[in-house]
Design brief:
Chain lengths: 112, 115
C-alpha cells in the first residue's frame, strides 16, 4: 500500500461545478498536511495547508480526518484556471526524522 | 509566499559530462532543502534531503556518488549530476523549508536533457 494515495483522475467537470477529492495516508504518525497544485511542466505551488479544524480559503476548503486518515479538498464554483494536478502532501515524523511524502496527484480539468 | 530560485532553468549536456544545479531560498533561511525528480506525467520523486552543514540523506535507489548534493549555507544547495546519461534527462525540482512542520516552497525546476 502506498503511503499516500490519491485518485489520479482525471476529473472532468463543467465550469461552476463543485468538485472534491480525497487523499488517504497510511502512517498515523503523520503530522502536517498540505495541498499543492501543479500546472503542466511547472513546479508545484502551495495551495493551502490543512489544519485539524478544517480551513477555508476563498473557494477552496480543506479538511483533515485523522480517525480515517484522509484529507480532502473541495473546490466550489470551479474556474477554467483551476485546471491542474492537485498534489496531496503529508509530513510524517518519528523520533529521528521527518519525511515528506507526495501523492501522485489528481488531475482536474474544467471545461467551459 | 516564500521565493525559491533555481538555476539554470534548462540545460542540455552531452553524455558523460557533469551538470550543476543551484537552488536558493531568496527571502528566508532554509533549514532543509529537498531535491526531486519528475519524469513526464509522473509524480515528484524525492531524491534526497539535505540539511545545512550536514551530509544529504538519499532515498533508496538514488546513487549518492552520481547525484552530489552540497548544502553549504542556509540559502543555497547544489545538485551535481555526474557523468550524466540520457536516462538522467528529467525535470529536477528543489524545494526549501524553514522548519520541520512548515510548508515547502519549490523552485521553478531545471529541465535537464542529456544527449
Amino acid at each position: 500500500r502506498k503511503e499516500v494515495e490519491q485518485d489520479p483522475g482525471p476529473f472532468n467537470v463543467p465550469e461552476g461545478a463543485t468538485v472534491a477529492f480525497n487523499c488517504t495516508y497510511s502512517n498515523s504518525a503523520s503530522q502536517s498536511f498540505f495541498w499543492y497544485r501543479q500546472d503542466c511542466r511547472k513546479e508545484p505551488k502551495l495551495l493551502m495547508s490543512v489544519y485539524s479544524s478544517g480551513n477555508e480559503d476563498g473557494r477552496f476548503t480543506a479538511q483533515l480526518n485523522r480517525a480515517s486518515q484522509y484529507i480532502s479538498l473541495l473546490i466550489r464554483d470551479s474556474k477554467l484556471s483551476d485546471s491542474a494536478t492537485y498534489l496531496c502532501v503529508v509530513n510524517m515524523r518519528n523520533s529521528s526524522a521527518s519525511k515528506i511524502i507526495f501523492g501522485s496527484g489528481t488531475r482536474l480539468s474544467i471545461r467551459p | 509566499g516564500a521565493v525559491v530560485s533555481q538555476h539554470p532553468s534548462w540545460v542540455i549536456c552531452k553524455s558523460g559530462t557533469s551538470v550543476k544545479i543551484e537552488c536558493r531560498s531568496l527571502d528566508f533561511q532554509a533549514t532543509t532543502m529537498f531535491w526531486y525528480r519528475q519524469f513526464p506525467k509522473q509524480s515528484l520523486m524525492l531524491m534526497a534531503t539535505s540539511n545545512e552543514g550536514s551530509k544529504a540523506t538519499y532515498e533508496q535507489g538514488v546513487e549518492k556518488d552520481k547525484f552530489l548534493i552540497n548544502h553549504a549555507s542556509l540559502t543555497l544547495s547544489t545538485l551535481t549530476v555526474t557523468s550524466a546519461h540520457p536516462e538522467d534527462s528529467s525535470f529536477y525540482i528543489c524545494s526549501a523549508r524553514a522548519g520541520v512542520t512548515r510548508e515547502q516552497y519549490f523552485g521553478p525546476g531545471t529541465r535537464l536533457t542529456v544527449t
